[in-house]
Write a structure and sequence with these properties.
Elements lengths: L9 H5 L4 E10 L2 E11 L4 E5 L6 H9 L6 E6 L9 E4 L10 H11 L4 H14 L15 H12 L6 E5 L7 H16 L3 E5 L3 H7 L2 E6 L2 E7 H6 L4 H7 L6
Parallel strand pairs: 3-7, 3-8, 5-6, 6-7
Antiparallel strand pairs: 1-2, 1-4, 8-9
Helix pairs in contact: 3-4, 5-6
The structure holds adenosine-5'-triphosphate and magnesium ion (MG).
Length: 248
Amino acid sequence: MPEVLAMDFAEEIETEPAIVLEDLVFARGGRRLVDRLSMTLGPAGVTALMGPNGAGKSLTLRLIAGLIEPDRGQVRFAGGDPAPQEMALVFQKPVLLRRSVRANLDHALKTYGVPRRERAGRLAELLALGQLESLAERPARVLSGGEQQRVAMVRALVAGPRYLLLDEPTVSLDPQATAAIEALVSRAVADGARVILVTHDRGQAQRLADDIRFLHKGRLVEAASAARFFRAPQSAEARAYLAGELLL
Ligand SMILES: Nc1ncnc2c1ncn2[C@@H]1O[C@H](COP(=O)(O)OP(=O)(O)OP(=O)(O)O)[C@@H](O)[C@H]1O
Ligand SMILES: [Mg+2]
C-alpha cells in the first residue's frame, strides 16, 4: 500500500478537526472504488481533492455528503452530523428547477424556512451576490452553463452552509464565469464555510486551496499544503499527474 506522504500540516490537525474520514471502503462489483481512505480535515479553509479520472474523488465527496453509505469505515463531523441546511453541494452540471432564476432562489429560501417578509430582501441580496439581477426573470434552464452554475452556487449559499462541497464546479466554464464562481467560493470561506473542492484545474487549486489531498485508485496517496504540493509533489503518482502523464 502506498505511504501517505508529506503530512506537513500537523498544526491544523492539533486543533479540533472539522471532518474525519476513517478507513472508508466503498466497493462495487468486487472492486474497491474507495479503498481504506482516511483523512483529517481541519476546521477552516479549502481542501482540494485532486487525482486522475476514476480516482474516487466524486465518490469521496458523496460519502462525505452522506449521499452514499460506505461499506466500511465512517465519516465524523465536529459537533455531530450536520443538519441538511448546514451542508451544500454543487456539482459539475447544475440541476435547476424549471422556473425563473428568481423563483429558483425563492424556492430555496422557502425550503430553508426564511419567513416570507424577509424573502424579498434576501432575494435581492442573492441576485446581487451572483450578479444575476439582469437574469432574474429568465427561465433558469435556458441560461448558459456559466450562468446556471452561478445560480447553483448562490442557491448553495442561501442557508450559509457550514460545509460546502464542490465537484468540478467550473469545468467547461470560460475564464470570466470561472472567476465569478471562485469569487463566490472565497466569499463563502470568508463567511466561515469549510470547503471541499474537487478540481482538475491546477490554477484553481492554487488560487483557492489551502491544502490538497491527492487520490489514486481510491486511495489517499499524498496530503500536503497546496504550496508544498505544487512546488514539490512527493509521490510518483502526483508528479506524473501534474506533468500531464496518463496515470494507470
Ligand atoms: N455506483 C457505482 N458502481 C460501480 N462503479 C462506480 C460507481 N460509482 C463510481 N464508480 C466507479 O468508481 C470509480 C471512481 O469514480 P469517481 O466518480 O469517484 O471518480 P472521479 O475521481 O470523480 O473521476 P473524474 O475525475 O473522472 O470525475 C470509477 O472507476 C467509476 O467508474
Ligand atoms: Mg468525478
